Amino acid sequence: MIADYKYRLATARLSVQLCFLGLLVGLLASGLIIAFELAVAQLQALLWREADDFTQLPQWMRVALPIGGAAAIAVMIHFSRRQYRRTGIAFVIHCIQQRYGRMPLGSGFNQFVTAILALISGFSVGREGPAVHIGASAATLIAKRWALPDNTMRILSSCGVAAGISAIFNTPLAGVIFVLEVILREYKVHYFLPITIAAMTASVASRLAKGDVHLYSDLELTAMPLSFYPLLVGFGLALGVLAAVFNRAMIHTTAHTANIPLTKRLLAAGVITAAIGMVIPQAMGGEHHVIDLAHQLDSTAALLGLLLLAKMALTIAAIGLGIPGGIIGPMYGIGALAGGALCLLLAPWIPELLDYQGTFAAITMTAMMAVSLNAPIAGLLALVELTNNATVILPFLLVSLPAFLLAHLGLGAQPLFLKQLDIMGLGYKIPPMERELGRTGVLALMHSNLVSVRPNLPQEEMLDLLKSAPDHYLLMPVAEGQQLISLHSDFTDHNSSPLSRSDIPGVPDTATLAEVYQLLAPDRRGMVYIYHQQPDCPIGLISWPMLYNYARSSQS
């Protein structure tokens, strides 16, 4: 028997069950991500005292760690199955758009381990990419445990993504908007509430584990006078150029190295990181160390400019060549360095800028991510939640909007994640009709009043059953699935059997109406049977007229 809650989940509506599942995804995802962060912290503690500060290490370790880490990642990926080798946010987008959010669980394990290796080895990658993948994998675990409908699976994977962002940065609302802007690229109420619950749950769990800490609430952000607002637009234009250059360089690197064996690419990333790390160790690792430097008043424009170039090169080398990790964290570092360097560069002519260096650096920190990833609202909310300061809202808009317009409309910058999918040959586009029908499960529409008969039943008994059967249909199991039996409609041949037999395709009860549409749309007629667990257990029928009428009513 099918549980009643599955019928409720099959509809494209908000339900208590859906919200409860969002809560469960938030709990499981946050638990896995906290374990991930603890593993990184404990391993980093064995090597140096302060996370992300590679200046404390001797030079030989700054060389050995990236090369050794790349080799270890290459070995692990080499011995993994091919379907488990892809990781990261771009792959999660592909799975949510094309696979209803079903993640290969082996790739989640790979992401967990290889991301730890990348983070402790000094690569310029962030933690949010692995967290997003781990969160989506947690949703797959829950969906498999209860055999949930596929339309629910897509929502739960989105819950896992929001939980991942929230658990890493303690930014629940930014995590929700990131999912709507970047992952789903649409807004539905029955999406929004479960995703919000998952993000809130992950944030609470993260605060219980790490304390109620906003990562950058200790930054001194001074409210800007109105006279500085025109200067913010200038900063935005400069940031737009930087974002366009970064995106183009990242896409170029990814595209032109895609055909090189992965092992060679990983080792090349290790060598590049080691070479730059020998000279500029401050640029190694995640974003926290460089963000601190960008806010320090004793930094110089030359130092921050050099760090900016090094951080961009390390990030492009790591992500572009296939090191498993996130890109949002490094973008925060790049943006902060750009803002701090611009302030110090202009300070000889505008000395008052030094009083607002930290504010400029904080604004450009998330504006860089907002422009590069096509996520302006998520960038704004991330800034407010990271700094616990709402005075930066209008200054952020004055920076990010000119930057966005210049980068995308003026300089032709392209969204990074979608271009990565294009390069990898992974789809993310869904036809509008299939997108709409994919929101509803087959349990919500199927006609369940059917009569199933045993094979080789005498014709006379079939005729008797047809008289009382709903809609005058019978189902009979055959080797390929099920056969639909109805009364013959051709009355010209009096010698033929009065029964019409036709093999019909079947889909599981977890499928969506989009899968039914794909089977019936070529001929615009026919039926599909729905089965529970095995094809020999039919539970309902969906005809083309039923599907057509549903599609028309949902669009009206």
Tell me what the structure shows.
This protein is an alpha/beta fold and 556 residues long. The chain has two domains: 4-429, Orthogonal Bundle (Clc chloride channel), CATH 1.10.3080.10; 442-555, CBS-domain (Roll), CATH 3.10.580.10. 62% of the residues lie in helices and 6% in strands. The protein has 22 helices and seven strands. The chain has helices spanning 4-9, 16-47, 59-78, 89-98, 105-120, 128-146, 150-169, 172-184, 189-210, 229-256, 262-279, 288-295, 301-320, 328-346, 357-372, 376-387, 393-410, 416-424, 432-437, 459-468, 513-520, 544-555; strands spanning 451-452, 474-478, 481-487, 499-504, 506-508, 527-531, 538-543. It has a four-stranded mixed beta sheet with strand order 1-2-3-4, covered by helices on one side. The protein has a three-stranded mixed beta sheet with strand order 5-6-7. A hairpin with a 6-residue loop joins strand 6 and strand 7 (538-543). Helix 10 (229-256) packs across helix 17. The radius of gyration is 28 Å and the shape is elongated. The two termini are 34 Å apart. The mean pLDDT is 89.
